[in-house]
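User: My notes are a mess, but here's the protein and flavin mononucleotide's SMILES. Can you give me a structure?
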Amino acid sequence: MNEILVLYYSRLGATAKMAQLIARGIESTADCQARLRTVPPVSTVCEAVESDIPDDGPTYVTLDDLRECAGLALGSPTRYGNMAAPLKYFIDSTSNLWLSGALVGKPAAVFTSTSSMHGGQETTQLTMMLPLLHHGMLLLGLPYTESELLTTTSGGTPYGPSHTAGADNKLPLTREEKHLCRALGKRLAETVRKLATG
Ligand SMILES: Cc1cc2nc3c(=O)[nH]c(=O)nc-3n(C[C@H](O)[C@H](O)[C@H](O)COP(=O)(O)O)c2cc1C
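Assistant: No problem, the inputs look usable. Here's the predicted complex:
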């Protein structure tokens, strides 16, 4: 079984919904299973210690989750055109994996949610890719053969799935946004499978 890590941070739930759809896309592919993980919020109190298991939702990610995965989907709400601090905080703890090259050659993809249509989805996606490139991962986006990229009037980009959640974060994912989440999961899983079987 090829396990693909779907690692995300979500404060209000939009990125979490996208993660679940991406996981469905992964699991629609034979021999592929999604491992959903999240990160705790960062504390303004230095080095505060949280339990490993949150009150609800997926468990917190560990470095072993990253070491063991065959691929990675990384999701974050957009914060000022960039990924959220809790996710960046975790990524900054991965230097041992970087030193040992543990992620080199593994496929990876990114996704995000914003309030506003032009609030920085692409800048978040592109900057989320940078640490993954440093790790030697193989970045995947979405091809325009997914025609929803052309018809969407909300989220969805060639750099990965995205969602426009509105000012109060209440807009549901549109049909196109949902389709592109599942398509990304499927593409990631199919790539992992192809690499595994040579
Ligand atoms: C500190 C902060 C910064 C934000 N920056 C942006 C931004 O640059 N562009 C934008 O459109 N939305 C921005 N938002 C809104 C979130 O990206 C949006 O509500 C997102 O859908 C939340 O995802 P979640 O439901 O997974 O937490 C920001 C929210 C916060 C709290």
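Strands lie at 2-8, 32-38, 71-77, 107-114, 138-139, 162-164.
User: Great, I'll file this with my notes.
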